[in-house]
Fold this protein.
Amino acid sequence: MALDTDIRRLSSVPLLSELDVEALRLIAFSAETRILRAGDILFSKGERASGGFVVVSGAIALDPYGDGRAAAEIVGPDSLIGEMALITETERPVTALARQPTVVLSISRELFHRVLREFPGAAARLQAAIETRLANFAALANAQTLKPG
């Protein structure tokens, strides 16, 4: 895939859209492309996570159950899977399974941390965006807790 195409794709991902073009270029150049067939497992619930994945094409089912129930969520192109794993050590909370032929860009935590070190302005914007999202999430959770049942 062309580098410019990968940069455009990465810039359409909400979390990554906070990064400068040069930071996105570094990610696009360094990320690993993985090609999955329908039914391939990208990762399994409980595995140690070493980074995140941007879906380039296809669809990934996210299954937290592992008991045959329908997947909790299906994500497609321009989705970021495992954004917390880009920032900190964690375990995968779901199994990710390709529902059809799928291409993903694999972004290691090491690469992501390098980008944050080399582009501190982008890191500050990313931190502010995450803080806003967490505040909105907390407000929504509080509002739902206060609803009369």
